[in-house]
Amino acid sequence: MVVVFALGVTKHRLDTRTNRETQLEVSVRILVSFSCMEYFRRMRLPEYMDTIRAVIVSVQEHGSACVAFVESIPSYNDLINHNGPLHLQKVEYMWSADEVQTARIIFYMRVIPTCVDRLPPSVFKKVVAPIMFLYMGHPNGKVARYSHSVFVAFVSSGKDPRISWDYTIRGRASGVGAIVRHLPAGSPAIFYCIHSLVEKATSLSNSVSSHDSDLWKNWEGELEPSKKVLDLLLRLLALVDIQVLPSLMKLLAQLIVRLPVSGRDILLNQLYQQIADSDDVIRKPALVSWLQSLLYLSSQDTDKRKPKLVCGLNKLEQN
């Protein structure tokens, strides 16, 4: 009944006889209402689809309507904290187990990409980003993918690259891969993220004493945050486009050669294994040459030999 009524409203209120402000207000109200009843929808009625199409077309063409719809989404605090009846507040609440709430957020995540071009970056960062990041960690993979799709849509719109950094630094490798593949070649957002990641890894590494060789050999304890960022940077060697790869290799080399010998050797071995396992015939030759240069630079301040790596590099060049 709600859907049929909403369709009737769109036919009578979204025509040329109604002023634009009223049309937008009605459209936003219908979308918000549909989000509230999303959990109870068990079939995709033709009336439902007709109504959704009509109101989305109306909303996505006007920035004020997009903002009004997005700002109607429950806040981050409301999502993670239970605000129900007092007699239920004694029960431990888990946001990811709330199926009614999750269904409503999925509705928003499906609609937001259609109007993300009209959203000011400040609104996206303040309202959408916290919830998007929260639901990226949802145990249901389908729900998490909706959140990733929202971010891909935002990045594709070419807006604030700083949010790309927020996303990347969280270390969601699968999500980072999706973002990198959707960004245009040589995107400034990728360069910004890489520079920020290298700066963060450098800062974290510099905060740990270089004299604790056992710590650097294992990359544990205080070095664990730095290692996570470095692992993400190494992963990006296989993901970024060819235009960005030289910059990434240069920044990584500058970072690696400044590390203590014991920590550096671990990363060089990890790099060797990663390059050896690569099937990318386009970037592999460049990576092999780059790793050779890294080994040479590393050998300048240590007498330690790396016969296994050097021998392996010769084989890599032939593959």
UniProtKB/TrEMBL annotation:
Top-level taxon in the UniProt lineage: Eukaryota
The protein, known as: Uncharacterized protein
